[in-house]
């Protein structure tokens, strides 16, 4: 098996369209075991770091995973400030900004996390709905994105979903939701 390249070496192997440029915002040891990421409206990179993935899913509130905000405060294109927005998560596999906070897929739940006092730490942690399958963490909900139709879209593998959303019972195996 090929050993991983150093982040700087990986950049030299990427191909981008003409006129585009690649730069390294952050890497280990500043962030560890990233599983998903998203940029907010301020240009900060939010990274879900998962130490529990794939085989150590923990009970709610007892996880070892977190979402870290990576910020470039001096304008050089590299993150130099790292703030843990939310911790005690377990295998967060997708996130999307909405309603002043972030929606997080973390089977079996979909969470809403929000900072209400401006310290970049989640003060609100609410379960929006539950029902994502947990039998295989590789096949859970992921790739959350805010659509132009004002809905949040995502994908789920064969772990599927069985729960209630908006007062309606729902059940599906895999696909786009």
Can you put this structure into words, describing what you see?
The protein is mostly beta strands. Helix content is 3%, strand content 42%. The chain contains 1 helix and 13 strands, in the order H-E-E-E-E-E-E-E-E-E-E-E-E-E. The radius of gyration is 17 Å and the shape is globular. The model has no long low-confidence stretch (mean pLDDT 96).
Number of helices: 1
The strands making up the biggest β-sheet line up spatially as: 1-2-3-4
Topology as a string of helices (H) and strands (E): HEEEEEEEEEEEEE
Q: How many beta strands in the DSSP annotation?
A: 13
Q: What is the overall pLDDT average? A: 96
Biggest sheet character: 4 strands, antiparallel
Q: Any idea what the shape is?
A: globular
| Alpha-beta content class | mainly beta
Q: Provide the low-confidence segments as ranges.
A: none
Terminal-residue CA separation: 35 Å
Indicate the proportion of strand residues: 35-45%
What is the structure about, briefly put?
This protein is mostly beta strands and 177 residues long. Helices cover 3% and strands 42% of the residues.
């Amino acid at each position: 098996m090929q050993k991983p390249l150093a982040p700087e070496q990986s950049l030299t192997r990427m191909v981008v369209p003409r006129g585009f440029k690649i730069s390294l915002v952050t890497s280990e040891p500043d962030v560890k075991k990233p599983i998903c990421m998203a940029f907010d409206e301020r240009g900060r990179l939010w990274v879900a770091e998962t130490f529990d993935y794939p085989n150590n899913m923990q009970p709610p509130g007892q996880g070892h995973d977190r979402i870290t905000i990576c910020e470039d405060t001096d304008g050089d294109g590299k993150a130099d400030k790292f703030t843990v927005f939310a911790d005690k998560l377990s295998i967060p596999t997708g996130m999307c900004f909405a309603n002043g906070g972030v929606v997080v897929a973390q089977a079996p739940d979909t969470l809403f996390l929000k900072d209400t006092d401006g310290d970049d730490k989640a003060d609100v942690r609410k379960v929006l709905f539950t029902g994502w399958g947990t039998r295989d963490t590789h096949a859970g909900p992921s790739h959350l994105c805010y659509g132009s139709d004002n809905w949040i879209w995502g994908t789920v593998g064969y772990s599927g979903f069985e729960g209630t959303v908006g007062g309606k019972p729902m059940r599906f195996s895999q696909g786009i939701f």
